[in-house]
């Protein structure tokens, strides 16, 4: 498989230019090691991995000596494996606060570790790396989020992508090793990945007595991906206390296996539902956990709807790590029935809404929630899109449109084909 240029790379280099410590966080096997190895560092650099036992021993025995190297940028891969390094890094940065001193990667949210949080506060920028976006797979950074806020009418283009290809993209997800494999070879990879993720990574974060509950919880998360989080219901399924379940969910989040989309709190209605949505962080992983793939996804009564929403939410989450427009991601629902799957709010107050449906025949009533937001927000409402499996792009007024799901990345792909 050819090396894929990561859209986040310029963001990492920009952070190194003005920040002493930069952290690239992400799940295992999303490409962190490849990313930091291929960065075009402006000055001297050295990459050391704590996956190597000898490096771990050296870091543990003398952390000050380990981080005091004659290079401009020391890159420490899998830094969460030796938390004792963080105070040594703090001391080194306090001695010499030049930008770009350290680039750390971690397969868990490093600031979840108390030593990291207390040692590096005010000295660090955190950047998240997720599995490949669809645009990255095609060789380009996707800019759907930017276009929503700067030129949404440019997105009104049809697609030549068939429904079967969309289903296959959902089943594949974005893990680099999965993208490179045939469908029949993905299952063994996911099986082994889950063993590593639920045992090695989780144990790195916390001592868990009932580790067997973690895979069960992850499967339950997949069965509810894209839905509002109900911790009590999950706890009942597992027959464990809700507080324990909530703690396990926090560990899954710290390992980047799931993420939450918070409820958008607004004065539009006093009846707003405030539960977050829970999303498995890769649609291919969610499909594997549910035991579905290919045409099975699209059968009548199948899970295509929530998995498509998971796919879209993850693509948006990825783009937000490099988009120029620094929006935040939410969802909206009130007790009166108004609902929008995803809401993007710009720091200047502008709002875009995204509704997701697996239908190939979008109807005006599918935009009901988007119209609700548009009517109540007035000038704050920038644009609303209904993403569907239909190939056509259909305007529904000056600020609403139904678009093919491939609008998330297709514009960049079409530009590439013309060049």
TrEMBL record:
Domain DUF4143: 202-358
AAA domain ranges (all copies): 19-136
PANTHER family: CONSERVED PROTEIN (PTHR43566), DUF4143 DOMAIN-CONTAINING PROTEIN (PTHR43566:SF2)
Name assigned to this protein: Uncharacterized protein
